[in-house]
């Protein structure tokens, strides 16, 4: 337990008659990257806000950095870094000034803040833009600045809510590199994300939340092994083809067969063997693809494919 920076037991958060978080247990260990996955309304953000000590729990136990957020909120927040889903930078200030002002919120001395800001600008690859106003930055640069700002107080625990939403692939990969460097430097990361490849790349362990509960927990590899298969065969069909009938025709060729509009998925240990068996049953798709199973397959199996508002 001494290596756990966050522990929760039976954690509950209610908003009136709505139960957003329904009795979850979790543990975030020092030095790891821990992820929360789940659809909108699953309880991810409510859990993150309780960990950030800005939203009181309804019931259950919660310890952050060994302290109780209800009693020690200011002390906890002083040792956290928070990257919100939406950038909230001061657009009328320069890049460097955003870091200076934020550092002063923590009561840090000006000489230290100036030195730390220079270090963080280099880390975020923004040194050449230090004296530009924030409005002149690209979306990826703003995101890197928001992460740099969250590190001004040398946090032990960094909370990142959808850190790469809306960024192009190049900006996403650059941010991933910055986050991996932070983890290697000993910063513990808690990340919410809708990008399954991001969770696979960054997270040592994660939980999948659904309707306020934890549906599954483990490393990405453990979850794939537990809830999916080694490979997936995707068979795509022309519009109008009854894929439900195709699913029945393909029954027994794989561990699991799933019919979707315009395609059928075969979850199998050996995708090529399953594909060859499908051809012997006179199944002729427009195209076929054999790929490895991913965290997205696990996510969709646990939370379903129906969009919930």
UniProtKB/TrEMBL annotation:
Domain ABC transporter residue range list: 6-236
Domain of life: Bacteria
GO cellular component terms listed in the entry, alphabetical order: plasma membrane
Keywords associated with the record: Antibiotic resistance, ATP-binding, Cell membrane, Membrane, Nucleotide-binding, Translocase, Transport
Pfam families the UniProt entry points to: ABC_tran (PF00005)
Matching PROSITE patterns: ABC_TRANSPORTER_1, ABC_TRANSPORTER_2
Protein family (similarity comment): Belongs to the ABC transporter superfamily.
Protein name, entry field: Lipooligosaccharide transport system ATP-binding protein
Organism of this sequence: Actinophytocola oryzae
Native organism taxonomy: Bacteria, Bacillati, Actinomycetota, Actinomycetes, Pseudonocardiales
């Amino acid at each position: 337990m001494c290596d756990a920076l966050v522990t929760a037991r039976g954690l509950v958060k209610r908003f009136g008659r709505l139960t957003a978080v329904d009795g979850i247990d979790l543990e975030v260990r020092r030095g790891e990257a821990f992820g929360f996955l789940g659809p909108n309304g699953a309880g991810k953000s409510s859990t993150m806000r309780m960990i950030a000590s800005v939203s009181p729990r309804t019931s259950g136990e919660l310890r952050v950095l060994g302290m109780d957020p209800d009693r020690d909120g200011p002390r906890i927040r002083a040792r956290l870094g928070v990257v919100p889903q939406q950038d909230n930078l001061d657009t009328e200030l320069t890049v460097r000034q955003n870091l200076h002002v934020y550092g002063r919120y923590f009561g840090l001395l000006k000489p230290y803040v100036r030195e730390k800001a220079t270090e963080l600008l280099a880390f975020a690859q923004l040194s050449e833009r230090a004296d530009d106003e924030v409005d002149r930055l690209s979306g990826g640069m703003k995101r890197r600045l928001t992460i740099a700002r969250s590190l001004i107080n040398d946090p032990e625990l960094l909370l990142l809510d959808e850190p790469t939403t809306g960024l192009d692939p190049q900006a996403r990969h650059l941010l991933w590199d910055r986050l991996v460097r932070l983890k290697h430097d000993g910063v513990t990361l808690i990340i919410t994300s809708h990008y399954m490849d991001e969770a696979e790349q960054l997270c040592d362990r994660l939980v999948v939340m659904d309707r306020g509960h934890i549906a599954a927990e483990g490393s990405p590899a453990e979850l794939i092994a537990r809830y999916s298969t080694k490979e997936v065969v995707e068979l795509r069909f022309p519009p109008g083809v009854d894929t439900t009938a195709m699913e029945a025709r393909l029954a027994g060729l794989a561990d699991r067969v799933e019919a979707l509009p315009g395609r059928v998925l075969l979850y199998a240990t050996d995708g090529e063997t399953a594909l060859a068996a499908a051809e012997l049953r006179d199944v002729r798709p427009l195209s076929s693809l054999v790929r490895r199973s991913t965290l997205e397959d696990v996510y969709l199996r646990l939370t379903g494919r129906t969009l919930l508002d």
